[in-house]
Every structure is written in structure tokens, then in C-alpha cells.
Known about the structure:
The structure holds two protein chains of two kinds. By secondary structure, chain A is an all-beta fold. Chain A has strands at about 5-10, 25, 45, 60, 65-70, 80, 85-95, 100-105. Chain A has one domain. Chain A has a three-stranded antiparallel β-sheet, with no helix packed on it. Chain A has a three-stranded antiparallel β-sheet with strand order 6-7-8, with no helix packed on it. Mean pLDDT of chain A is about 85; it is low at about 1-15. Chain B is mainly α. Chain B has a single domain, classed as Ferritin. Helices cover about 75% and strands about 0% of the residues of chain B. Chain B is built from ten helices and no strands. In chain B, α7 (about 150-175) packs parallel to α9 (about 215-240). Mean pLDDT of chain B is about 95; it is low at about 1-10. The interface between A and B is large, with 36 and 37 residues.
Amino acid sequence: MITDPREREDDSEVAETAGQSARQRFILEDTGFDEVPKKYRRFYRKWKGAGDMLAPNEVICPVCKVVIRSTRELRPGDRVYCMPCMSRLVVVRNQSGTLEARVAY
Amino acid sequence: MCAQPQRSAPIEIHDLDLQQFLEEVHSFEFWFEAVEGYLSGLTWGHRPDTPEAVFDELERDRLITVLCNYCVGETAALEGASGLISIAPNRLAKVFLSTQVADEGRHLEVFLHRLRDLGVPNPEAEVERRASPSLVLFKRRLLELVAGKDWEAAIFAQNVILEALEFAVFHSHGQTADPITREVLAGVVKDERRHIGFGENEIGRRLAAAPHIRARIGQVKKELDHLVFDTLADTIKQIGLPRDEEDRLGRAYLESVERLGFL
């Protein structure tokens, strides 16, 4: 389930590797997250708790529990930034097969 | 649910160069624009028209004790963060700490004001009277580390241990608090995200660059852990949260220190 307002489209230009499927692109909208300057707000949203689900372009920051959003589908090895807590994170696939972010000090 | 048509490739902040990112998020400008977003329009940390709850005497007394101890924690962080500016190892850390000092000063002020709202005539005297001994000891030890110019140990004690404790407790208390206290706590928690992130990342980078400091920081953790857990137990009892919440908050506190490799 995708809970945020957005529109998805495929973009073959972002298929960096031959044989790898193109990454989906996402248009992000401001969801009311107000803890960063306006120009960055669409890259973050609040985790709504039980019942909320992450879209393919989202991971949770393990430090401050905010949802980090990207304009493109996330894959293992991607680097993302959590501005609300100033962390640099790397996306990994965990044992259950879902994506999560680990802090890269 | 409408999405704007995309005319060109969106700017992706996750593509920022690391140094650019660090410069941006540690800047006074970033802090100012961030806090403006959630503090604008508030008075003493809450909307001016939020109604006051009706408390019975026991509820009021317990809330006063909890707020008094929040004031002890915020005073520790205010004095600690301001003292750390002079020994911060670089400009980014100094500027960030200046924003943290402003945050901590605001937190202390809004909690003291909330105590006045609740009918406490002399909040600062009440804070002294009701302060948890374990939290007072924690504050004393933190300020000793700051006075000793021990950057890593002091940042660990303040921005990892104390801030992680406050983040977990304020967030949990905010779920059950009266409307005004809830709004005050919500604003404070938003500030705390920056503080815990700064602490964890600073210590993480230091440990990666100088692994020999791990033993010293581990010793600080061992020394302070029981004070943290005693404070947590006292606070949860006063807030009136169930026992399983104490376990959950204890785990939330431990998460950050475990990510840094301290078990």
C-alpha cells in the first residue's frame, strides 16, 4: 500500500546497469512535515505507526524514526540523508527481504 | 492526492556531496528555518488557544514532579552544551552547539512556564525540591566531563545518553499528556531529533577514526547507565505509564548506544 500522495512513472534513464530494471521515479509532495526548511520538507514524512507502510522510495531513519523519501526507487547500496537528525545512511536489504537504512558514520 | 506534473528531473537531496550536507544541516540558517516551521505562532511552546485540562490534586502533583525533573535535564543540557562550545573540535560543531544552547534554553523556559501555569509560585525552588537524586548526580557527572574538556565523553553523556533518554520519555509522555503539555512536548521532541543525531554521528565518526577511545566511552556508559535507568523508573512512575512502557523506553534508550557498539 502506498499511503502518500505521489505519482509514479518509469524512467529508463535511471537504469544504471544493463540488465537491471529501470528505477521507478516518484514525484514528492509536501506531507506537512515541518522539522526541516520548506525546500526539503517533501523528502521526509512522519511514520504513522501500525498500519503505515513504506513505499519503494522510502526508508525509516533508525536514529530519529522519520520516514526518508527519495525521488527514485531505493535499492541496496543507495545513500540517503536524514536532515532532521543529520544522519547519513546506507540502504540495505534485511533478512526479511525488506529495505532498511543503516547509519554510516 | 494530486501530484504536480514533472517537467524536469527533480532535485534529489540524497545526491548532495557529504560535505555540502554536513555544512547545510549544522548551519544556523538551517536551524532557524527548521524551528520557524514548528514554533511560529506558539506561545510558551503551545498554541495560545489550547484549553487547559482539569486535573485532580494527585494528577497535578505528579505532573509538577515530572516537569521539575524535565527542568533538571534541560538545565544539564543547557549548561553542558554551552560549555562544550569552547572545546568543540571544528566550526560545524561549534555552530551546531550554539543552536542546541538556544533549544535547551527554550525547553527550560517552556517547562518552567508550564509549572507556573499549574500554580507553582516559585518554579525554580520547586525544581530543587523535587529533583530526582539520580538525575542530579547525572547532571553533576556530565558537567564534570565538560569541565574536564573531555569532548568525546561529554558529548556521549549529553547528546547520546541524556538526549536519547529525553527523546524516548518526552515522546511517550506526549501520547498521554494533557493538551497543553502534549503540544509543549511535541515541539521539544522535534528539537531533540537534531540533538540525538548530532551526538550519535559525532561519536560514531570519532570511534571510526580513533577506536582506542571506545574503552573510555564504554566506561562512561557503565558509570551512567544505572543513573539513567533509575531516572527512567522514577519518571515513568510519576507519569503513570504501565510497567511494559518502562521496558520499551529502556530498549529505545539502548538502541542508540547499541548502534555505536556498546552493549
